[in-house]
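Run log // design_07
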C-alpha cells in the first residue's frame, strides 16, 4: 500500500508477503537472518506478476486450448444459432525471466506477418477471432504492431487469453430427431447422431437428453451403442455413450407409453434435445498453434506441450 492506495493486487506476488510463520521473540538467544522479499521491486518493476530467481530442473510449458460450442439447431438439421467461446490456458514451469512468443492461425496475425516478410504465407486455413481479451502479461504494444502474442508469463497456471468465434464453426456432431405421436397414449422416438470430426479422433462422455411428456409411464429402448434409460426426475430419456468414434453414427429408437388423461389434448411444445460431450485434439473454431517460442538469456532448452479440447456449452436441437 502506498498512502492507502493499493499498488499491486496480483495474488502471485501478494503470497510472498502473507505468511503463517511464527514470530520469534526479541528475548530469544538464537537469531536467524532471512532474506526479506523486495516489495518495492515487485511493485515498481516492469514484470510485477513474476518474481525473480525462479529455478527449475526441467523447464516445461503446457498450453491448452479449451473451447465450448453453443448451438441451436432446428429439427430439420439447419443451424439457427452457433458460436464458439474459447480460452488459452497455460502452465509454466520456467527458470529466470523468459520471453515467450505464441503464433496462432488467426487471420489478422497471418496478414501482418506476410506484410512484414513481404511474401504470401502458407499456413492453411485462417480464422477470424472476435472479442479477444488478454492476460496483463501480454505486450499489447507489440500485439498491435506485429499481431504476435508476446509475453513474460507468470509462474504456474494462468489464463493467457479468451476469444469468441461466430463464423466458420466446425460442428462436432449432427443430431437428427424424429418424434411421432401415435394417439393419446403412445409416442415413437428416433434419434440419429453423426460425428463429423476426423475418423482418428473420438468423443468422450457423450450424453444426449431427449425430453418426453410428464405423464410417461413406460419406455422401451433400442440403441446401436451405449446405454439409455428413462429419468423421471428430469422427464428425459438419457442416452450415454462412453466413447464415440469420428465419422460414425449411432441411433436410438424408443417406444414411449403415456398415461391417458381426460383433459383435452394440447399442442405439445417440447424442450430441445440437449447434448454433452468432450472431444480431445479437436477445435470447433479451427484454431491451431503454429509456434510457441521460448527465449531466456541463459539459453536453456524447454519442453512444450500443446493440447486441444472441445466441450459442449449449450448444444441444443429442437424436436
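design_07 sequence
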Amino acid at each position: 500500500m502506498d498512502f492507502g492506495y493499493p499498488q499491486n493486487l496480483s495474488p502471485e506476488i501478494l503470497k510472498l508477503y502473507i505468511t503463517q510463520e511464527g514470530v520469534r521473540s526479541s528475548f530469544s538467544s538464537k537469531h536467524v537472518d532471512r532474506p526479506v522479499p523486495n516489495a518495492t521491486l515487485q511493485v515498481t518493476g516492469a514484470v510485477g506478476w513474476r518474481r525473480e530467481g525462479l529455478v527449475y530442473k526441467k523447464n516445461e510449458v503446457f498450453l491448452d486450448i479449451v473451447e465450448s460450442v453453443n448451438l441451436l439447431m432446428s429439427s430439420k438439421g439447419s443451424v439457427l444459432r452457433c458460436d464458439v467461446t474459447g480460452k488459452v490456458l497455460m502452465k509454466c514451469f520456467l527458470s529466470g525471466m523468459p520471453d515467450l512468443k505464441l503464433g496462432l492461425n488467426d487471420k489478422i496475425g497471418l496478414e501482418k506477418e506476410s506484410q512484414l516478410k513481404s511474401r504470401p504465407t502458407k499456413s492453411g486455413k485462417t480464422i477470424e477471432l472476435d472479442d479477444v481479451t488478454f492476460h496483463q502479461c501480454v505486450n499489447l504494444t507489440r500485439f498491435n504492431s506485429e499481431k504476435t502474442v508476446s509475453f513474460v508469463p507468470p509462474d504456474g497456471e494462468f489464463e493467457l487469453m479468451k476469444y469468441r468465434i461466430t463464423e466458420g464453426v466446425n460442428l462436432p456432431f449432427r443430431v437428427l430427431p424424429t418424434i411421432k405421436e401415435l394417439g393419446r397414449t403412445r409416442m415413437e422416438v428416433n434419434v440419429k447422431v453423426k460425428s463429423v470430426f476426423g475418423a482418428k479422433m473420438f468423443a468422450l462422455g457423450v450424453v444426449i437428453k431427449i425430453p418426453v411428456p410428464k405423464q410417461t409411464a413406460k419406455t422401451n429402448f433400442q440403441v446401436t451403442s451405449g446405454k439409455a434409460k428413462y429419468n423421471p426426475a428430469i422427464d428425459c430419456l438419457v442416452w450415454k455413450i462412453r466413447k464415440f468414434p469420428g465419422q460414425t453414427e449411432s441411433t436410438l429408437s424408443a417406444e414411449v407409453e403415456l398415461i391417458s388423461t381426460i383433459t383435452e389434448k394440447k399442442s405439445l411444445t417440447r424442450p430441445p434435445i440437449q447434448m454433452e460431450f468432450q472431444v480431445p485434439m479437436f477445435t470447433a473454431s479451427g484454431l491451431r498453434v503454429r509456434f510457441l517460442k521460448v527465449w531466456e538469456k541463459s539459453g536453456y532448452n524447454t519442453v512444450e506441450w500443446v493440447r486441444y479440447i472441445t466441450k459442449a456449452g449449450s448444444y441444443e436441437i429442437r424436436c
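The chain has four helices and 16 strands.
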